[in-house]
Amino acid sequence: MFTSEKGIVEEWLSEFKTLPEASLPNYATNLKDKNSLVSSLYKVIQEPQSELLEPVCHQLFEFYRSGEKQLLQFTLQFLPELIWCYLAIVVSRNVHSSGCIEALLLGVYNLEIVDKHGHSKVLSFTIPSLSKPSVYHEPSSIGSMALTESALSQHGLSKVVYSGPHPQREMLTAQNRFEVLTFLLLCYNAALTYMPSVSLQSLCQICSRICVSGYPRQHVRKYKGISSRIPVSSGFMVQMLTGIYFAFYNGEWDLAQKALDDIIYRAQLELYPEPLLVANAIKASLPHGAMKSNKEGTRCIQVEITPTSSRISRNAVTSMSIRGHRWKRHEQPDNNNDTTELGILVIPEISVTNVAGERTGNGEKGRTLGEIDAQHIQGVQETATDPRTESKGLPEIRRQKSVRKMMEDGINSSGRVQF
Length: 419
Known about the structure:
By secondary structure, the chain is mainly alpha-helical. The protein has 18 helices and 2 strands. A two-stranded antiparallel sheet has the order 1-2. The protein is elongated, with a radius of gyration of 42 Å. The chain starts with a helix and ends with a helix. This is Hyccin isoform X2. Its main location: membrane.
């Protein structure tokens, strides 16, 4: 750590001690623009043996409990780096060096699990129903499932997930360590939209280092420092994925991609189903190319929304519409089909006559086969233009055919009787 950076941190420590309470909001507003101070504080946190680490942790905790929202967010941006430093110290079994960092993490945890009146918080989350539209889906695109979900939602069967109340912790042990750290990452993810780019970069880097430390992939990533495996829980990895998913669409594509691959690598080794499910879902939803997001613009997760459509179709299918469509189809002349069908009936009759060797007269030579066919087709089309006339003519034709058949049967039967 350079002398200039050390001087910036010392000035920051002394400035806050002499700051009157009335000027606290203005101080908090100007604090986020001090990039040199933020980078110097990161270097202090990364050096566990630094003499400035303890006063820095103490002042960050004072920021958090001051009640000023911007000061609280200023402390939260260092949370991923603090978690990494704490885990690295615990794995190296140098417990005495982690006292101030552990106290800061415990202080933030104990402040977050209670409300302003000192009562325990119970966090609730209602699982969204697929029958109701959201920015992620449209019920009409799901099909029959939407009807089932709609029927269930009308009976008030929406599922609510509760988290808490969480117990107060006086120290971090191997039993409650990841319970506390998972809750702290949950608090960090709740303020992701206010985190600067340097904090998102720190999140992606520490997620990658936690997952590959002590494994062969550590040599591939060329991470130096500790080489021991850091135990992680399934819930802790899911919270890491939440922050990484946000980093994908807010200017940190490359670091987020590397962290996602390392989390999948570790989840496969640990056989954790929840992180594998979330990580593979994120990976499948990513676009093919890296997204160039504006780091200074509005921070959000981009999703593709299906275009909304009206629930009731204007062209509803009814019996009248089907009947009208059928009449329209009959009214449209189809010359090609009629010519083909009539050609099948007429041409064999003429060809049979020609085969029999019958000669046509000289006066009949002018009437070619094409003229005869054309006249015949025209006559048929004229009789079939009116569908009502055609429908009335069909029973009459059937009646004539039946009478002719009865007469022929009668003649034949009478002939047989006479013989």
